[in-house]
TrEMBL record, chain A:
Disordered as annotated region, ranges: 91-125
The name this protein goes by in its record: Uncharacterized protein (DUF58 family)
Residue intervals of the DUF58 domain: 207-388
Species in which this protein is naturally found: Promicromonospora iranensis
Pfam families xrefs: DUF58
TrEMBL record, chain B:
Pfam family name, one: DUF4350
Record bears the keyword DNA-binding: no
Organism this protein belongs to: Promicromonospora iranensis
Keyword field contains Transmembrane helix: yes
Coiled-coil stretches: none
Origin: domain of life: Bacteria
InterPro entries found in the cross-reference section: DUF4350 (IPR025646)
Full protein name: DUF4350 domain-containing protein
Regions of compositional bias (Pro residues) in chain numbering: 1-15
Transmembrane segments: 54-72
Keywords: Membrane, Transmembrane, Transmembrane helix
Chain spans, region Disordered: 1-47
Domain (DUF4350): residue spans on this chain: 83-260
Length: 450, 429
């Protein structure tokens, strides 16, 4: 049972007869008229429980891009359906008002995802609602509410149907804009290695005829002896190296970073951006990429995906990774790496250089990793702290700057310790981390340290 | 590697594998079709009943309890000196004893009610007024013909009821004293510790002279009785004689009962401070419950219509378009909180030395890095390098980087500023 503003307006119109015939009886009669009209409206309204509803949602969408949730409403009530239909989504699904006005369907006011529907018996309509999700992960839809009004529009019936709907919101991968330049650098390394560079960082590619300008040290004398012409060996960057990205989803990844006047985004989101760019780059360089999201247990994993299947698998498995408010189990991380990687590999730890957490967690175990693998520790720095560092205007700001300076010193100390144990450290602001990590990867590859 | 100028190749398009994450799968056409919510009218009624039965039960029980209490317990009030107030400051004890003795008590709160209830052969008790009576109210009370008993009256009331034969004064008491007068009521009560506050101002021409009892020895009395030809007026300056809490002390009860029990009818006026009635004015339409007479004709039905329309408007707005959708909220803790918290700790503890050491070490670290010094360089090496780079006096640089902690906050701010300047002067060698 619902009433509309029309019922109130009809009741209000009763002022006219009451002024003409001022008596309590007039009020009674008018109220009876309004009640009767309302009851008739409810009885004559199409039953919302005899409307077939189907919700069509795309399987997945990238963060902050647009998807459309579509309700297919078919009127099987035997009466004309005049209704407001609400396609309910949570706030972070970013539902906009209904779209597309037709004879049967037009957007309704009062909130996101509402549609006026006017359907004769047996007909169906599509009600599109635009979704621009603002958070990663699975966005689950609420029910579909149908408010079916009678022919007078005074009153009607309302029901909320449990229509399932789920939209998986994939990471934004905004760092993909850095990919073309990094791929260009990768190709460039390729060519340079073939002509002049020799030694570490390259592996044997093929033999070809000597041309003037080639390094005489790369002449393959044994092959030359077998043939008439002088033959040189060519080199290319190593391929088929293994890259393991370990994403720390422990408590430090939940902290928000960003400018002081924004709500910021969790550290984890910046780490995910960096992981995606690195995976895309390494995948193109021909390395085998694996990913583990870990805090005290494995939250997500990508294994054995290569070529075109790699990035969808990465996006899919990173979509639902959320920070967990637990301390990361670093010995567990080492065990994971040991079981996954039997031969030398590049292990990228996407975590936070929080001095206290690192001293108790990562430092004691990093040498075990660095003994067998190349280790890169990548950390998201905070823009707000960087801002605090330079504050000098008030005494409070000077104290803030002093605290930030202390934090820097401690972080520097931890970084030094990590480097001493043989790990490389990359620390950058959220937007810079992905390209910096990609550059680090390219540098390692060029140096042949993979 | 990073600084290498990259010969720009034709901008490569992002590989196809990435675009797979963009669109995702198309709309799922095989999504389930839902018709109805698997309920019938009967099942909905049943679930509504199941949901409502406990709240309803509680409501019914509470309602029954209220009715039961209202029937079983006599109504009481909390107004001071009221005959139905059982608290310390009430007058229920005296009222109940009087009722048992056959006195009919009429509890009134306005002068006009008192005037209409009181008459000859009745007693009119006026308990202390939190406000004050107007002159016409006092004369209205005088005209009733009833014997008047006035407790703790104000200055105007004393003069009014005694025809100016009494006046208020200031007195104190610390121990019970004898009445020291001829009044039979007073003598029956015996020794009392009443606060005195009356003085005799009567002259021979007044005709009636007050009988004053319980003096404090300085000319102030606690009790006065005037016997006019048609009625008597009793004034007691201490209302403790009536209060439940003090009525049992000494002879308070005897005094109260004898004062109020002269006649079978007792009108008990507990004045309402907002009351301005005098008993002989016309009641206003509002007092007669006839607001309608002041309104234009037909306004009541119109108001009813408007109220009903407002009720419908409320019903329209109150019904939500389906339930709210639950959303798991993320953690909202800023990473900089730790740094800010540490700064507040420094500040609260006035740890200027600590803060200055942090700023100095951080500056020295950056300068050392810029000048290519090893991280393990000692203070002298750093100072020498800075002196060489900036041509500042050695002592000044050493003071800045390794000097004593600042004395106050201003010195700390100054130190931070000077460290900034020093750092800006150091350039790569």
């Amino acid at each position: 049972m619902v009433v509309t503003w029309r019922a109130a307006a009809l009741m209000g119109l009763g002022v006219v007869p009451v002024l003409l015939l001022p008596a309590d009886g007039t009020v009674l009669v008018w109220s009876a008229v309004v009640v009767l009209a309302g009851v008739a409206d409810v009885v004559l309204a199409a039953s919302p429980r005899r409307v077939a509803v189907q919700r069509r949602v795309p399987g997945s969408v990238r963060l902050r891009s647009e998807a459309t949730s579509e309700l297919v409403v078919r009127n099987a009530s035997g009466r004309r359906l005049r209704a407001v239909v609400r396609d309910a989504w949570g706030p972070s699904a970013g539902a906009g008002p209904g779209r597309g006005s037709t004879e049967r369907v037009r957007p309704a006011s009062g909130g996101a995802g509402r549609h006026h529907v006017d359907l004769p018996d047996g007909e169906a309509a599509r009600l599109p609602t635009t979704l621009v999700p603002t958070r990663r992960g699975d966005r689950t839809a609420g029910g579909v509410t149908i408010r079916s009004l009678g022919p007078l529009g005074l009153a009607g019936r309302q029901v909320t149907l449990p229509v399932p709907g789920r939209l998986r919101v994939l990471p934004e991968f905004a760092s993909r804009k850095h990919l073309p330049s990094r791929l260009a650098r990768l190709r460039e390394m390729d060519g340079r290695a073939a002509v002049q560079i020799r030694g570490e960082g390259t592996e044997f590619d093929s033999l070809r005829e000597y041309v003037v300008g080639d390094d005489v040290r790369s002449i393959d004398w044994r092959a030359t002896a077998r043939r008439r012409e002088v033959v040189v060996r060519t080199w290319r960057p190593e391929r088929d190296r293994r890259v393991l990205i370990v994403l720390d989803t422990g408590r430090t990844s939940a902290a928000r970073v960003g400018a002081a006047d924004s709500t910021g985004a969790p550290r984890l989101d910046a780490s995910i951006e960096a992981a995606l760019l690195l995976a895309a780059l390494a995948g193109h360089a021909g390395d085998r990429v694996e990913l583990v999201a870990f805090d005290r247990t494995v939250r997500s994993r990508v294994v054995g995906a290569a070529g075109p299947r790699l990035m969808p698998a990465m996006a899919e498995s990173l979509a639902t990774v959320e920070p967990v408010l637990l301390e990361t189990d670093w010995p567990g991380v080492v065990a994971q790496v040991r079981t996954r990687m039997t031969q030398r590999a590049l292990v990228v730890l996407l975590t936070t250089l929080d001095p206290a957490a690192v001293e108790n967690g990562l430092l004691p175990v990093v040498d075990q990793l660095a003994r067998d693998h190349t280790v890169v520790v990548a950390s998201v720095a905070d823009e707000e702290v960087a801002g605090l560092r330079s504050g000098r205007d008030t005494v409070a700001e000077v104290y803030d700057a002093a605290a930030a300076a202390r934090g820097d010193l401690e972080r520097t100390a931890v970084t030094t310790m990590l480097r001493r144990y043989g790990a490389d450290v990359v620390e950058a602001l959220p937007d810079d981390l992905a390209p910096r990590l990609a550059d680090e990867y390219l540098a390692l590859k060029a140096a042949g340290r993979l | 590697m990073t600084s290498q100028p990259a010969p720009a190749p034709p901008a490569p398009t992002p590989p196809a594998s990435l675009s797979a994450t963009q669109g995702g799968a198309g709309p799922a056409d095989d999504a389930p079709v839902v018709i109805g919510d698997d309920t019938t009218g009967r099942s909905r009624a049943a679930s509504r009943w199941r949901r409502m039965r406990w709240p309803l039960t509680v409501l019914v029980v509470v309602a029954l309890l209220v009715v039961f209490l209202a029937v079983v317990r006599p109504p009481t009030s909390a107004a001071p000196y009221a005959p139905d107030n059982p608290e310390q400051g009430g007058g229920m004890a005296v009222a109940e004893v009087l009722k048992d003795q056959g006195v009919r008590i009429t509890h009134v709160t306005t002068v006009s009610e008192a005037v209409s209830a009181a008459g000859p052969d009745s007693t009119l008790l006026v308990t202390p007024n939190p406000s004050f009576f107007a002159d016409d109210q006092i004369s209205a009370l005088n005209r009733t013909g009833a014997d008047l008993v006035v407790l703790n009256p104000d200055f105007g009331m004393i003069g009014g009821v005694s025809r100016n034969t009494l006046d208020s004064t200031y007195g104190e008491t610390d121990a019970p004293v004898a009445p020291q007068c001829d009044d039979p009521t007073a003598r029956a009560a015996g020794d009392l510790a009443l606060r005195p506050g009356l003085t005799d101002t009567s002259t021979a021409e007044d005709g009636v002279r007050p009988v004053l009892c319980w003096p404090d020895g300085l000319g102030a009395y606690a009790y006065a009785r005037l016997d006019f030809p048609d009625r008597s007026v009793t004034v007691v300056t201490d209302p403790a004689v009536l209060r439940n809490g003090t009525v049992l002390e000494e002879g308070n009860a005897a005094l109260a009962l004898r004062m109020l029990g002269h006649h079978e009818d007792l009108v008990w006026l507990v004045p309402n401070p907002m009351d301005v009635s005098t008993g002989d004015d016309e009641p206003t339409p509002a007092e007669r419950g006839q607001v309608n007479e002041l309104m234009p004709p037909g306004s009541a039905p119109v108001a009813l219509v408007v109220v009903l329309a407002a009720v419908l408007l409320t019903l329209w707005r109150v019904r939500r378009m389906g339930p709210l959708v639950v959303e798991n909220l993320p953690v909202l803790v800023r990473s900089a909180e730790a740094t800010r918290g540490r700064a507040r700790l420094y500040r609260a503890a006035r740890a200027r030395g600590h803060a200055a050491a942090g700023l100095r070490a951080s500056t020295a670290d950056r300068i050392a890095t810029r000048l290519g010094l090893a991280r393990s360089s000692d203070a002298n090496t750093v100072v020498d390098a800075v002196v060489a780079a900036t041509h500042r006096p050695s002592q000044q640089v050493a003071d800045l980087l390794y000097g004593p902690p600042p004395a106050d906050d201003a010195a700390l701010a100054e130190l931070a500023r000077r460290l900034d300047i020093l750092e800006s002067e150091v350039h790569r060698p």
